[in-house]
Amino acid sequence: MLIKQLSLLEETIDAAVDQQLGKEDVEESGTVMSIDNGIAVIKGLKAVKNQELIKFPGDTMGMAFNLDFRSVGVILLGEYKHIQSGDRVTRSYQVADIPASQDVLGRVISPLGEPLDDLGPIETDRRMPIEREAPPIMHRAPVNKPLQTGLKVIDSVVPIGKGQRELILGDRQTGKTAIAVDTIINQREADVICIYCAIGQQITAVAKVIEVLKEHDAMGYTVVMVAGSESAPGVSFIAPYAATSLGEYFMEKGRDVLIIYDDLTRHARAYRELSLLLERPPGREAYPGDIFYIHSRLLERSTHLKPAFGGGSLTALPIIETQAENLSAYIPTNLISITDGQIALSPKLYQKGNLPAVKIGTSVSRVGGKTQVPAYRQITSALKLTYSQFEELETFASFGTRLDESTKRILERGKRIRAVLNQPQYQPIEVTEQIGILMAVTSGTLDSVPVDKISQAERMIQTLVREDETFRKQLMEEERLDENVKESFLQRVSDRLKEEWDEADGKPAID
C-alpha cells in the first residue's frame, strides 16, 4: 500500500514539474562574461544545446558553438557593439534556421532570411534549419542530366551534370565569378533555380553582380544571399549552409537548383578567425583540425534525388582563390578531394586575352561527361587530343625550330580551336550551336579562315544551325550522330564560307 502511494506521489510531482516547465514564463538565462570580434563568452546556460540560438539585448542573436564545462562560446549573428559584459541573455530553444518559400526568388537576403533589397517582407511557407544531414546514399540517383553553362570550353571539355559539385579555382582577377554569372544567365530557359551566395564580398562587387543579373533578366529565377565583408564573421560562416538549406527546399519539391558559393576561401578564413577567438587548437596554416569537415558536410548536401524523394537536384559550383596557381595549398587540396572535378583558371591565359581563361590540361570533370549529348561526346575526344597536341607543339615551335607540313597543320588548327573556345562574357551559346561550331573546327573546315575572322565564321555557323531544325533535333535525340548527317552539315558550312569569302584577296564578304 505504501509503495503504491509513493508511486502516485512521484507521478504527481513529475506532472507538476512538466506543467511548470511548459509555461512560457519559464526560461533559462545567462550572463555575458566577455565579448570581442563577434564572439561572446556566456556563463550560466548549463543546459544549452549545440548550435542553439541565444537571445542578446537589442534583438541580436548568437549561436552556441563552444560548450565548455564552465562557459559557452557563442558566435554572434548580428550587430554587437551595444552588447556589454554583464548583459543578460536567454535561450531560444531553437536552432538557426532560414525562412523558405517561392517568394525568395528575385530577392536579396541575408543568411538569416532578412530582406536586404527594400522590397518588403518575405512570405514564409516553411523554416529550414541551416544545418541538415546530407541525403542518404539510397535516396540519391545517378547524375544523368547536363547542366549547360553556355560556355563552349566548359560544356565541351569539363561538362557539368545536375547534382554534381564542380570546383572553380584560380588566382585573383581571373574570371571565376564571371563563369558563375554566365552559368546563371544561361539557365533562363532551362527552368533551373539559381542561388548566388556571396561570402565576405565587398558590397560594390555584389551590387555589380546583381545589376548584371537584372540586365539579363536572370533575377526572376535567382536568389542572392549576401554576407558582406562588413558582417560579423559568424554571419559569413553560416551563409553557405543557409543558402544550401534554401536550395534543398526547392530540390525536395522536384526542382533543379544551381548554387554558387563565392567564395569558400573567405568562408575558411572566417571559420579560422572564429576558432582562434574561441581558443580552439590551431593546425596547418592556423586552420582548426575540422576545416575539411566543415566543407565536406556542406558539399555532400548537393545531389540528385530519386523520384520517390522528390526527383530534384542541387548542383554546387564552389569558388576558391589560389595564390600563384598553387593547387597544392591546404584549402584547394581539401576542396579538390571533396568535389567531382575542377575548372582551373590561368592568369597567363587571362593576360593573353583568352577568355574564359580555363586551363584545359588541369581542368577535369569526373561525372559530367556521362551527361553530355551523345553528339557532343563524339567530337569532344578529338577536340581534347588535337588541343593537347597543339599546346605541346606550340612550346616546341617557340624555339624557332623548322617544322614539317604536318606539324604546321596541327599548329594552325590548334590556333583556331583556341580562338573558338574564346567567348565574350554574358553571351552564352545554345548547346546545338556549340556542337556545330566545334564540329567545324575539329574537322578542319575552318582551317582556311584567318584566326582573327573566326568569330565571324562562328556567327555564320550559328545561323546555319538555327535554320536547320532537323539537324538540331538529330543532335539532341540520336544516340550517335550519323556520319552522313555530319558530312552534309560540314559541306553546307564549307559552301557558305565560299559564298561569303573572297578567296582571291582573302577578304570576307561579311564584316
TrEMBL record:
It catalyses: ATP + H2O + 4 H(+)(in) = ADP + phosphate + 5 H(+)(out). InterPro entries: Alt_ATP_synth_F1_asu, ATP_synth_asu-like_sf, ATP_synth_asu_C, ATP_synth_asu_C_sf, ATP_synth_F1_a_nt-bd_dom, ATP_synth_F1_asu, ATPase_F1/V1/A1_a/bsu_N, ATPase_F1/V1/A1_a/bsu_N_sf. Its main location: membrane. The keyword ATP-binding applies. Residues 372-492 form the ATP synthase alpha subunit C-terminal domain. SUPFAM superfamilies: C-terminal domain of alpha and beta subunits of F1 ATP synthase, N-terminal domain of alpha and beta subunits of F1 ATP synthase, P-loop containing nucleoside triphosphate hydrolases. ATP binds at residues 170-177. The record marks 363 as: Required for activity. Keywords: ATP synthesis, ATP-binding, Cell membrane, CF(1), Hydrogen ion transport, Ion transport, Membrane, Nucleotide-binding, Translocase, Transport. GO terms for cellular component: plasma membrane; proton-transporting ATP synthase complex. It comes from the Bacteria. Residues 26-91 form the ATPase F1/V1/A1 complex alpha/beta subunit N-terminal domain. It is found in: Cell membrane; Membrane. Its EC number is 7.1.2.2. Residues 150-365 form the ATPase F1/V1/A1 complex alpha/beta subunit nucleotide-binding domain. The keyword Hydrolase does not apply. One of its GO terms (molecular function) is ATP binding. It is a peripheral membrane protein. HAMAP family: ATP_synth_alpha_bact (MF_01346). Belongs to the ATPase alpha/beta chains family. Produces ATP from ADP in the presence of a proton gradient across the membrane. The alpha chain is a regulatory subunit. This is ATP synthase subunit alpha. The lineage of its organism: Bacteria, Bacillati, Bacillota, Clostridia, Eubacteriales. The gene is atpA.
